[in-house]
Amino acid sequence: MRPSTSTATLRTVHEGLEYLYDALGRMGLRCHPTQTNFFLLELGRDAQTVFEKLLRRGVIVRSMRSYGFPQCIRITVGQPEENRRFVDSLAEVLAEG
Predict the structure, then answer these.
(1) Mind spelling out the 3-state secondary structure of 24-49?
(2) Cα separation, 62 vs 94, whole angstroms
(3) 3-state helix/strand/coil string of the chain
(4) What spatial distance separates the first Cα and last Cα of the chain, rounded to whole Å?
(5) How many Cβ atoms from other residues are within 10 Å of residue 1's Cβ?
(6) Contacts 24+ apart (CB under 8 A), 90-95
(7) Rounded Cα distance, 14 and 11, in Å
(8) Above 90 in pLDDT, residue 97?
(9) Which of 35, 30, 27, 31 is CA-nearest to residue 89?
(10) Distance (Å, rounded) from C-alpha 18 to C-alpha 9?
């Protein structure tokens, strides 16, 4: 029997969260745990700058500066290849300083 779409979607989100929490944690970043398909990531630097640099690379996140969290971005869990692309792009942006 094939899993329902909602079951497959939940599995994708949970596996994506595990991957992202692990990869971002190894980068020394703090993730705020969630029960949804998105979460806050503390960058320890200006989130708007990181947002703009990621956007230029075609990676869309949300700066949380306007919500009173100037060093956080909101990440939405995607497909595995999208999650890897985000992590790789973020590592490049953070290495730039």
Answers:
(1) HHHCCCEEECCCCCEEEEECCCCHHH
(2) 16
(3) CCCCHHHHHHHHHHHHHHHHHHHHHHCCCEEECCCCCEEEEECCCCHHHHHHHHHHCCCCCEECHHHCCCCEEEEECCCHHHHHHHHHHHHHHHHHC
(4) 50
(5) 3
(6) 90/24, 90/27, 90/50, 90/54, 90/59, 91/27, 92/57, 93/50, 93/53, 93/54, 93/57, 94/27, 94/43, 94/45, 94/50
(7) 5
(8) no
(9) 27
(10) 14
Contact by Cβ (8 Å): 77, 19:
no
Give yes or no for residue 1 having a pLDDT over 60.
Answer: no
Amino acid at 88: D
- pTM for the model stands at 0.90
